[in-house]
Every structure is written in C-alpha cells, then in structure tokens.
From TrEMBL:
<protein>
    <recommendedName>
        <fullName>Heme chaperone HemW</fullName>
    </recommendedName>
</protein>
<feature type="compositionally biased region" description="Low complexity">
    <location>
        <begin position="282"/>
        <end position="297"/>
    </location>
</feature>
<dbReference type="GO" id="GO:0004109">
    <property type="term" value="F:coproporphyrinogen oxidase activity"/>
</dbReference>
<dbReference type="InterPro" id="IPR034505">
    <property type="entry name" value="Coproporphyrinogen-III_oxidase"/>
</dbReference>
<dbReference type="InterPro" id="IPR058240">
    <property type="entry name" value="rSAM_sf"/>
</dbReference>
<comment type="similarity">
    <text>Belongs to the anaerobic coproporphyrinogen-III oxidase family. HemW subfamily.</text>
</comment>
<keyword id="KW-0349">Heme</keyword>
<dbReference type="InterPro" id="IPR007197">
    <property type="entry name" value="rSAM"/>
</dbReference>
<feature type="region of interest" description="Disordered">
    <location>
        <begin position="282"/>
        <end position="304"/>
    </location>
</feature>
<keyword id="KW-0143">Chaperone</keyword>
<dbReference type="InterPro" id="IPR013785">
    <property type="entry name" value="Aldolase_TIM"/>
</dbReference>
<dbReference type="GO" id="GO:0005737">
    <property type="term" value="C:cytoplasm"/>
</dbReference>
<keyword id="KW-0479">Metal-binding</keyword>
<dbReference type="Pfam" id="PF04055">
    <property type="entry name" value="Radical_SAM"/>
</dbReference>
<keyword id="KW-0408">Iron</keyword>
<dbReference type="GO" id="GO:0046872">
    <property type="term" value="F:metal ion binding"/>
</dbReference>
<feature type="region of interest" description="Disordered">
    <location>
        <begin position="1"/>
        <end position="20"/>
    </location>
</feature>
Length: 434
C-alpha cells in the first residue's frame, strides 16, 4: 500500500495556501494529476499507493470518481480564494494504480470536471496509464473521442519469466494488439519498461527492447528496478528466493537501450525517457500513427500531434504547478507542496466532509529549492543553464567536462547536458553542482 508519507507541517482544513503563493505561482503552467489507487493484484515490486479489492476496507471503487470530482471542485475554490490567477490546464495525467480498471465514463467525467473547473488549454495533453489486459479497442476509442490524447502502457518486459518475477499478469503477446488499438483510435502510445529484475539477463533485456521497438511507440520509458523495503520482492530477495539486482548489469542494460533507441531515431530527453522527434505542426499525424488530425470533444478542433515527450512529466522536472487529486496524491503550487491522506476510506471521509484531504504540507526554503531545481533540471537534456548556477557550481563545469560527465559542446553553448556516462552517474553530477 505504498511507502509512508513524508513528515511536514499540518495542512489547514480549508486548504488555503500561504500568503505570497500567488506571486511565486505567477506565470507557471498548471497541470492536474488524478490518482486512481486500484489494482486487480499487487505486483511484488510495487511500492505505490495502490489497493486491491480486499484492501479497501470501507471504501468503494464505484464511488471514487464522484469523490475525485469533489476534490477538483474543492481545488478550484482553494486556488480562487488563495488569489491564484486562473490558468487553463496544460496537461492532465491519470495514474495509479490502474486507472483503466474504472469504466470509461468515470474517467471521462473526471476529465470533464477538470475542464469545467479551469478549462483545458488548446492542445492539452491528456494521458492515462493502462495495463495491457485492462483495455480493449472500444475502451480506447471512447477515451480518444472524449479528448484523451495519449496512453502509457505498462509493458515492463516481453519475457514471461521476468513478468512472473514482477508478478505482472498480462500476456506479453497482447501488448502489440493493444498498441494497435490505441493507434487506430488516434492516441499517442508510450511503453514503460523495467530493467534489472532478479534473474533477468542482458539477452532477456535485449529481447524486451527489440519487442518494444517493433511496435514503434511514440515514447518509451526505461526504469531501473528499485527494490523497495516492505514489498514482496524485497522479502523474497532477503530470504534468498531471488538474487540482489546487479548494478553493473543494470548499467549494461541502460547502455543497450540507449544505443538501440538512438539507432531507431529516438531522442533521450530525460535520463529514463526517450521519444520520437517532434514533427512540424502542418505535417499531419504522428509517425507510426494510422490516424490523422481529429476533432477533440473537449477543446475544439485539434492540431496534429507535434510533441512526443511526456509534457506532464516534464512539468514535474521543470518545477511547474500541479494539483494532485486522490489518495496519497502530491501537489505543488507556487513553492508550497502537500500530500493527501493515503487510504481511500480516509480520503473519502475528508472529501465528503468538505475539508482538505491533505495530510501535511511544506514550503521549502531557498536553499532546498535550489538543490531540488538542479537535481530535477540536470536530468533533462539541456534543461539546466550554466548561468543559473551558483558561482561555486559554475566552477565545477570544466571538471565535469574533463571527466566526460557533461557534453562539452552543450556546455560551451551555455547548458548542462549529461553524457551517457553522466546519465549513469547523474547523482554524482548533481552533488558537484549543488
């Protein structure tokens, strides 16, 4: 059911944000994250705030969309009362859990509530995560018709024994089928992969990467497995059922996926994320998509897809504003952060009582904000400018070039861009810049 929430200051019941938040928020794009905390089964490696039916204890999945809509309405009031200038929503992301366990009409109702509260920006990106076994062609077509633009499938691996170790239940042979359905619906497609699973070989990983590339996704994420304490997988490793992940093997796996994606024409834009290159606004449908421009039921006539990076995730790394809806969801507005109570039953109690579901909040000081800014922006390709660094950090740039951790050409042009070696040692680069 997820790791413990962070410590912080008490959050006011009315949700009112601190004075000065509106000034710090001014000019920042605004996104919305909707957490859907339900899963059919708990994967052995998962530490997210998710619940199977036996773990809900007093909460009902069928009631959830109505509760989330109440938080959207609560959020709109709080932002207005906190003097935050109204902004249309640039990105909406439904994550989990498995959002597509809910019927389509509930996801669509939540999206419409966001539109009613703030309006959706022209060209809004609307993403849902999905398990390959949780959708069919009609489900994806209904989402696309209602304004969803992107689906992120949790593929994880193409190798059955790796999926079994992760407790993933989908058939790897189904992934190409659901990708085809998504393309037929006009949705952009992202695939999520995990490497470093105990027992996974470099050949296994190569097979998974090649399988993903054969589907020509618009976007691909590859994350090293993190063995979180308290998970089933951590207990299995501790008892000797599986070996510890091998850091050297994981580095080889990262180098493999980067090389294969680069050769296939994908660009890395964040340490764990690659996408197709952007296309001109007048060039029609996205490469690999069978669908051309389509009307958007929520925002009017759509323009052709020109951006294949996850704009929602970029907003996190760039320090934009977002409101997180749902149990355990985190939010950030104008430098203030807060997080909701974790359990769906506790969340429902607060929402139905008309009070903030926040469990705590914090407003980091200037030093903490700077460390976080560097930590996040350094992960983005050319996301961190050298002239924005403190003088002592700028003096590290020459050494980082000499150590082949950052790209010399990019540095001479004024930005920090990690080399392949630098991406493998990203934490070390950040330590030298903060």
């Amino acid at each position: 059911m997820g790791s413990a929430l962070p410590l912080g200051d008490p959050a006011p019941a009315d949700g009112r944000l601190p004075e000065g938040t509106s000034e710090l928020s001014h000019g920042h794009p605004f996104g919305v994250y909707v957490h859907v905390p339900f899963c059919r089964v708990r994967c052995g490696y998962c530490d997210f705030n998710t619940y199977t039916s036996s773990e809900l204890r007093g909460a009902k999945q069928v009631d959830y969309s109505g509760q989330a809509i109440l938080e959207v309405e609560f959020a709109a009031r709080v932002l207005a009362e906190s003097q935050i200038a109204p902004r249309p929503v640039s990105t909406v992301f439904f994550g989990g859990g498995t959002p597509t366990l809910l019927p389509t009409h509930q996801l669509i109702e939540m999206l419409r509530a966001v539109d009613d509260a703030w309006g959706l920006a022209t060209g809004v990106e609307v993403t849902t995560e999905a398990n390959p076994d949780s959708v069919d062609a009609r489900y994806l077509a209904d989402l696309a018709a209602a304004g969803f633009t992107r689906v992120s499938f949790g593929m994880q691996s193409a190798v059955p024994h790796v999926l079994q170790t992760l407790d993933r239940t989908h058939d790897p042979e189904r992934v190409p089928q659901v990708v085809g359905w998504a393309r037929d619906a006009g949705l952009q497609v992202s695939l999520d992969l995990i490497y470093g699973t105990p027992g996974e070989t470099l050949d296994d990983w190569s097979r998974s990467v090649d399988s993903a590339l054969a589907m020509a996704p618009d976007h691909l994420s590859a994350y090293a497995l993190i063995v979180e304490q308290g998970t089933k997988l951590a207990r299995q490793i501790r008892s000797g059922v599986y070996p510890e992940p091998d850091d050297d093997l994981e580095a080889d796996m990262y180098e493999l996926v980067d090389a294969r994606l680069d050769a296939a024409g994908y660009e890395w834009y964040e340490v764990s994320n690659w996408s197709r290159a952007s296309v001109a606004a007048d060039s029609g449908a996205a490469p690999g998509s069978s669908a051309g421009p389509r009307p958007d039921a929520l925002t009017g006539p759509a323009t052709p897809a020109t951006e294949f990076r996850s704009r929602h995730n970029l907003a996190y790394w760039q320090g934009h504003d977002w409101w997180g809806i749902g149990p355990g969801a985190h939010s950030h507005i104008g430098g203030t952060r807060w997080w909701n109570v974790k359990h769906p039953a506790a969340y429902a109690d607060r929402i139905l009582a008309g009070v903030s579901p926040a469990a705590g909040r914090e407003t980091p000081g200037a030093d903490s904000r700077e460390i976080e800014r560097v930590l996040l922006l350094a992960r983005i390709r050319s996301g961190l400018t050298i002239d924005s660094l403190a003088p002592e950090a700028r003096r590290e740039v020459a050494g980082l070039i000499a150590d082949e951790l950052i790209n010399a050409k990019a540095a001479f042009a004024g930005s920090i861009e990690l080399t392949l070696r630098g991406r493998l040692l990203a934490d070390a680069v950040v330590r030298r810049l903060t």
